[in-house]
Amino acid sequence: MPFTPNFFQSQDNTEELKSILGALIKYRRIEESMSLSFVADILHINKGYLSEAENGKRFLAKKHIQTLFDFLGSSFVDSPAILYQLRASLDQIFELSIDFHYEKIQELCIDILKERVTYESSYGFFTFHLIELIYEILIHHDHETIEKIESLFSAYAGILTTTEKTYLFYFLAEYYIRQSDFQKGEGYIQQAYSLLKTGMHPKIFALLQALEATSLCHQGQSGKAFLQITKSLNYFKNTLYFKRIVFIHYITGICLLGMRLFEEAKQHFTNLLPNFPDPDSVMAQSILAHLSWCYLLIQEYEKALTYANMAFEHGADSIELDVCQAFSFFSLKQYEACLAVVERCANEKQKSYLFDFLQLIQYKIEHSEPDFLQTANAVLAQAEKKKNKEIEKMTLGLIVNFYEESHQLDQSHLHLKQLTQLLAA
């Protein structure tokens, strides 16, 4: 997207352009580790005048702009058209993201990133870096770059328009929720909400509600998540954003699962699966995995294994699915198959409390009392911390069974009471 420079048209003396130019000068100066006094003294510019320019209160004279950017080892293309075209591209990227058109986003962003030199020397500097941030979050996943741009906007978010700030907070919230930093993700969601007036921007409101529901689901607050995802669906069901609607239905299924409405969740995911004709797609794999868990939790272990195997065959690979498969084998007393899953995970998977749960099953099969009890306590503590009620319940069930088999009835009754209370919660 090349542009023909149009240098120093000071007649474009709008408040917005003054603020952007001033912020860019300040950013370049700080980047070069120069104080305001130092730059003013070296270039023989009044310090107060330069300070007002950096704070967007006035435009610098043409000669000072040229001299200042030369001194800071940069340049400036004084064309507001660059800013407006970047903003149009930003709106297009956001619109494409609603229905997950990531290939088109990638193509558009790469074309923009090729013109980095021009955009970083223009009024479009901050909008360009917002687009770069979105590209990294959705496509490229360079965490260092994301953190660097986040740091930039922690200092200069005030330069952005309300719409740009909403995009910023929305995508950063999505990023941190993906990273399981739910506190930070929800903080950005609340910042985005605060920018939107009631009744305005219903589309963005609905997107934020879906994002908030996703976060709440992961934190075990499925009831609250269900309320938010229902609000989001009420908006999107009347739109043509097909992929977004399907995704919202997917989150709805997870909410039902989290609320222990296993039959409803099973039916919901079963109805959703035909929307993904490619069984190798990530979403199809995830739905198969969730169906496996639905059947596990209603104790239909053969069907749980059927869906787990289908998920594995189509490329799914997660410790949660391994747990589902192993526990189903264990419940069916197919101990050799169960131990084979544990052994495979010991060689391939990163260790976590879910892997400890797999080892717990192994110790139960092998009647290894000290290892079993020690591991059971560790898994219970971690499952409670992670708010994983199902692993907590399954672990308590194993403990009750262990004490029953060893005729330690007092301990069995104690843990059975704990399990009953958890089931009733």
Strand-pairing-aware structural class: mainly alpha
Provide the helix percentage. Answer: over 70%
Distance between the termini: 58 Å
Query: What is the oligomer described by this structure?
Result: single chain
Strand % is: under 5%
- How would you state the average pLDDT, rounded? 91
Task: Describe this structure as you would to a colleague.
This protein has 425 residues and is mainly alpha-helical. The chain is 75% helix and 0% strand. It contains 23 helices and no strands. Helix 18 runs parallel beside helix 20 and helix 21 packs antiparallel against helix 22. The longest helix is centred in the first third of the chain and has 19 residues. The chain is elongated. It starts with 14 loop residues before the first helix and ends with a helix. 37% of the residues are buried. The N terminus is likely disordered.
Brief account:
With 425 residues, the protein is mainly α.
Which terms would index this structure?
mainly alpha, 434 Repressor (Amino-terminal Domain), Serine Threonine Protein Phosphatase 5, Tetratricopeptide repeat, 425 residues
Give the topology, please:
Layout: H1 15-31, H2 36-43, H3 47-54, H4 62-71, H5 80-98, H6 102-113, H7 116-119, H8 125-140, H9 143-156, H10 162-178, H11 182-195, H12 202-218, H13 222-236, H14 242-258, H15 262-272, H16 282-297, H17 301-313, H18 319-331, H19 335-348, H20 353-366, H21 369-385, H22 389-405, H23 409-424
